[in-house]
Design a protein that fits this description.
- By secondary structure, this protein is an alpha+beta fold.
- Helix content is about 30%, strand content about 25%.
- The chain contains five helices and 15 strands.
- The strands form five sheets. Strands 1, 2, 4 and 5 form a four-stranded antiparallel beta sheet that branches. Strands 3-12-11 form a three-stranded antiparallel beta sheet, with no helix packed on it.
- The longest helix is centred in the first third of the chain and has 24 residues.
- The chain is globular and about 55 Å long.
Length: about 260
Amino acid sequence: MRLMEYAAKGYEVPRMDMIKTPEQIAGIREAGRLNTEVLDAVEKAIHTGMTTDEIDQIVYHYTVDHGGIPACLNYEGFPKSVCTSVNDVICHGIPDPKQVLKSGDIVNVDATTIYKGYVGDASRMFMIGNVSAERKNLVGVTRECLHRGMLAARGWVNTLGDIGAAIQAFAHKHGYSVVREFGGHGVGLSMHEDPFVSHVGRRGTGMLLVPGMVITIEPMINQGHPDLYIDSLDEWTVRTVDGKASAQWEHTLLITEGEPEILSC
């Protein structure tokens, strides 16, 4: 078996349960499709003056109306159906009826959908109104970091370290820092599976990527320092220590022998 041949050569290889069957991939693809539609619905509606709680309501109703389950809702006590992370919030922002989106804000909307027992996961950045050139650049560089990570995710060719190295190099080239404490992950049968996908790394190190693996790549790129803290008021919201902006883009990806297939975006 090809996997065992690589293991014999000294490669770190995935466990068999990290490689999805064709039936599982088909189910994850459908969950990913619905998750993408959820974010499409947000994109059509998001505007200056809306609250992040209104975003949550769009996600909840679209998901449930189409036969899905918002995976975030009540996950380990998380109180809402989606994460909305505004400006200096890196991730896990909780939608709030008192939080109104203002011109100049950037917001990450991170949706995860369960559909017929399978899971799709993705996030997008939205720029509200008149956004500064500095924040536009951060959002654009972060999206390119995701793209470069994807190009370094070919089965039988790349390792997890290649993904992190590609993202880290591009972010640092533009003067930004990369969050290390949070990263991508396996996904599909549950929300968070092995392996952990770091967005920093060294080329040629870490687990070999094998066709049939389903992972997320979701770089969190900070305008300033990479240091973070979890807000003690809700024990979920992750913020930059220096108060500068952060951005994130996320796709669910199927590893193939060529470029990965995007299952949710």
